[in-house]
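Side project, low priority. Logging it here so it doesn't get lost.
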Amino acid sequence: MSEQVFHAAASRGHSVHDWLDSYHTFSFADYHDPERMQFGALRVLNDDVVAGGQGFGTHPHRNMEIVSIPLQGDLEHRDSMGNVAVICQNEVQIMSAGTGIQHSEYNKNKDKTVNFLQIWILPEKMNIQPRYDQRAFDPTQRQNQWKTLVAPLSSGEDAVLINQQAWFSSGKLQASTTLPYRLKAAGHGVYIFVMHGAVVVNGQVLKARDGFGVWNTEEITMLANVDSEVLLIDVPML
């Protein structure tokens, strides 16, 4: 029988600084909840809004898979491997920190905010050589269907590749659309994050920024109550 956990948007941790407004689905920084440390290999899911021209100065990471998904605005990235890039809506960035990397992230624009999801996945292999990748995805490929955005290095899929048996998929569902999703492997769970709209999964109504984890199942089915955009994170439950 499937198991599930619901995280209402309003129950997330929340921190506000001069230039950063951040919501934490799982324990992060000053927000700590022993019941919300991770969902399998999914360790961090932060919903960040950064003021114009501001951002995270150069800081280190090690042995973590870090995925950034802009929802609005443009995010400028610089790292110790020499990568300089701007990540925009409909793009996905992966940074495998491996043995160690330093990077910074800033709002590219001074006149508007940037909103992005910062997602950390525990790695499959430790101390790998750091790597960076970024690519754009055609939003029409997500219309009433799941489009794979992130997939394992070993999969060879047409996606941004990650050092873990993890898949990220996104769909833009029109109201009244029903869409099934089959989990990628035994022992996996899927974490559902509603970016916009409202959907129903396993009888649970999910609204914007709600999170819902399901495991011990092979498949889920989603019904969109209104036009919705959803991110699925399929991970080993460890």
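Brief comment: The chain has two domains: 12-136, 139-236.
Revisit when time allows.
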